[in-house]
Amino acid sequence: xxxxxxRLANFVLxxxxxxxxxxxxxxxxxxxxxxxxxxxxxGDARITERAILTARGKEYPLNGFLACSQTGGxxxxxxxxxxxxxxxxxxxPEGHVFVMRSSRILRPGWIRxxxxxxxxxxxxxxxxxxPSVTMPETNHFVIQxxxxxxxxxxxxxxxxxxxxxxxDPNRREAP
Length: 175
Fold this sequence. Notes:
By secondary structure, the chain is of the alpha+beta class. The protein has helices at residues 3-35, 108-123; strands at residues 45-55, 58-68, 74-79, 85-91, 97-101, 133-137, 140-144, 148-159.
C-alpha cells in the first residue's frame, strides 16, 4: 500500500469515527423528546412532586401537590421546604388560568405566564407540545427556558377521584 493510499484509508477511518461520535453525542437529546409519552398519569389523581427551580444562578427547592380531574382540570399548590404556599393555581378544562394564591416570590403574572404553562406542558391531557420540556426518565421532567430551568420529579401518584370543589375557581383554599 502506498503512502497516499494509507493516508486516504486513515482519513476515511477518522471521518467515520467522527461521524459515529457526533451521532452518539446528539442522539440522547433527540431521544428524550421522542420518548416523552402523551400521557403518563391517571385522569383522576393527586400527585406529589419535588422540584428544583434554578433562576438567576440560584437553586430553590420546591414541593408541589397536584390534583387532576378526569374532565381536564388541574389544581397545583407549590410550597417551599417549610410548607409556606408560594403559588396555588387552577387551570380549568377550557385552559383558563386562575391564580388562587400567590406570594412575594411567585407573583400572579409569573404564575400565569410560567407556572401554568409548565403545568400544562407536563400534566394537561393532551400536554402542550413544547421542545423545552424533556423527560429523561419515567416521572422525571426537565424544563429548560431562557430565564429559568425546572427539574421536576413525581414522588407519588394517588389515583382516584378528587373533590369537585378543588376545581372551583371561587374556592381559594389549598386543595
